[in-house]
Amino acid sequence: xxxxxxxxxxxxxxxxxxxxxxxxxxxxxxxxxxxxxxxxxxxxxxxxxxxxxxxxxxxxxxxxxxxxxxxxxxxxxxxxxxxxxxxxxxxxxxxxxxxxxxxxxxxxxxxxxxxxxxxxxxxxxxxxxxxxxxxxxxxxxxxxxxxxxxxxxxxxxxxxxxxxxxxxxxxxxxxxxxxxxxxxxxxxxxxxxxxxxxxxxxxxxxxxxxxxxxxxxxxxxxxxxxxxxxxxxxxxxxxxxxxxxxxxxxxxxxxxxxxxxxxxxxxxxxxxxxxxxxxxxxxxxxxxxxxxxxxxxxxxxxxxxxxxxxxxxxxxxxxxxxxxxxxxxxxxxxxxxxxxxxxxxxxxxxxxxxxxxxxxxxxxxxxxxxxxxxxxxxxxxxxxxxxxxxxxxxxxxxxxxxxxxxxxxxxxxxxxxxx
Length: 419
Fold this sequence. Notes:
The protein is built from 13 helices and eleven strands. With 419 residues, it is α+β, with helices and mostly antiparallel strands. Helix 1 packs across helix 13 and helix 7 crosses helix 9. The chain starts with 12 loop residues before the first strand and ends in a 21-residue tail after the last helix.
């Protein structure tokens, strides 16, 4: 197996005047966090502004800062089944992470030449390079750990990827979207996003449906024992779904606030609260169960509530009902309400993507790379000469168009309300 040096794509460099070697800090496009990278629609902004610094900034803002990382290798012709599997799964993994990955294959003189190119936002790729390199090796070991040829290909692929990683030097200044923009992006695609919540909800809902089936189909002399065991699991999953509902409500409220009190999300929240009127209390009771079992919960107040069981659970043919202190909820109905709210909120965030990911317009924070490799956001009084003017020029250019919040977005396909 022989390897071919891969292409290297670096982030845009912010040059000093005359494009010569700068006397001061070097300016480069930020290595954006994985959650920000290459997700959602691309904003194409046509603007002509004077300096290379501002042009670079607008390139990043318009999605033009697109990069690639390439892995190239030669193997036998035809390739072994293990190699074919590795190429397929490595490409699938990078796509799963949010890239656009292409695979090219050519056969010549008894050898097969592979070119795997991973496309995406350059900063995003830079942040994921080490992960891709590690996963290339892990996938090979999962497929055929004893295949030395395959493992060698994977190790070489990892080395090629790491060689293409852009390393910022101490003293370099990088620019990245403002804090509000970074928060908006994290809200859309991070570990507490709607997508993550829906995956969590699906896990508990599938288990709850299985609980229903197992409870209602229990027969025989030990059926009573099975029902009690199923009840316990159903309670765990039911409370987990209630937690999902409360988190979804908080996410929706936060997005409504970020979108200037968006009336569509407000209307969806009102419907949601009508359908889940007792969810907040049930969640709080579960959170403070240790207080409620001794009669000292907030709802108990000064009343002399006797110590004892707090939650009742009823399983019928179609749903699981959780009840406590006069509050109750049909759990599958709650799950349905969560999905409906999520759909309306997602319609809004898809239509108003730019308002969240560029919450302050096309504006940037600037960070300096410290000696230990970490970055620190600069205060305006720390800006090098010329940077404050560049920031002002970018902000002025951003304001020249129609504000994102004033653009017409159409109506929600689920409820018909304006987005």
